[in-house]
Amino acid sequence: MSQNAESESETSGLAKLRLGFQVLYSAVFVVLFVGVGAAPGNWNLPFGVAFAAFTVYWAFRDDVERRLSRPQEWAVFAFAVCGVLLGIAVERGELTDGVLLGFGGAVGVAVLFGYRAVERR
């Protein structure tokens, strides 16, 4: 009984250490990507935010996949891509054909793969 309690506390300690590393790693890269995106002459801010969002997703993908169903993951994908495209439209001050095509593509891909995930259940 005592060994089981010790192994659970070690696992809990390692889980906390892993979570702390994930949060630190994500925070560093979010600041880096958003900072480079906001700096003049480099990427523009929406691309920096997109890279930061991808990095956060990549760091926490195991938790995301454990807590969300496949259709929910595709909905989050569509929301994230549409957010980046909205940032591009706001930064440029106009809604171009490319941005509209991107909105349609992101929503279309999410609907298609979300529907396929629902059908597989």
Spell out the key features of this protein:
121 residues; mainly alpha; 88% helix; flat
String of helices and strands:
HHHHH
Distinct helical segment count: 5
Radius of gyration: 19 Å
Q: Give the class from helix and strand content and strand pairing.
A: mainly alpha
What's the mean pLDDT score? 77
Task: Choose one word for the global shape.
Answer: flat
List the quaternary state of the chains.
single chain
Distance between the termini: 40 Å
Account of the 3D structure:
This protein has helices spanning 2-38, 45-59, 61-67, 70-92, 97-120. With 121 residues, the chain is mainly alpha-helical.
Structure summarized in a few sentences:
With 121 residues, this protein is an all-alpha fold.
Topology of this protein?
Blueprint (H helix, E strand, L loop, with lengths): L1 H37 L6 H15 L1 H7 L2 H23 L4 H24 L1
Helix pairs in contact: 1-2, 2-4, 4-5
